[in-house]
Design goal:
Number of strands: 3
Strand order of the largest sheet: 1-2-3
Largest sheet: 3 strands, mixed
Oligomer: single chain
């Protein structure tokens, strides 16, 4: 079980999260995004990406997503953690 803080009540952050979701939909090997949190004071956005084992290079894919977000929202730093697709 995981507990994540999330803040999407602010319109700016809701737009960012929707843009992130659009980017993720372009990459079928990304199975899920969770733990989205945006820190307005630090201009930092963090989230986790669950990437399937079929991905050739999970970290490179993660870097691509964060770079696309940085391009769209240059005032922010984006930090993503790669989660493996494992279950019991």
């Amino acid at each position: 079980m995981g507990i994540y803080a999330a803040n999407t009540d602010d319109d700016e952050y809701a737009v960012m999260k929707e843009h992130l979701s659009e980017i993720i939909r372009e990459h079928p090997e990304i199975l899920q995004m969770h733990g989205y949190y945006a820190d307005k004071e630090r201009h930092l956005v963090t989230f986790d990406l669950v990437i399937g084992f079929e991905a050739d290079d999970a970290q490179a894919l993660c870097n691509t997503v964060t770079a696309q977000m940085k391009e769209a929202f240059p005032a922010y730093t984006f930090y993503a953690v790669v989660d493996s697709d494992v279950s019991d």
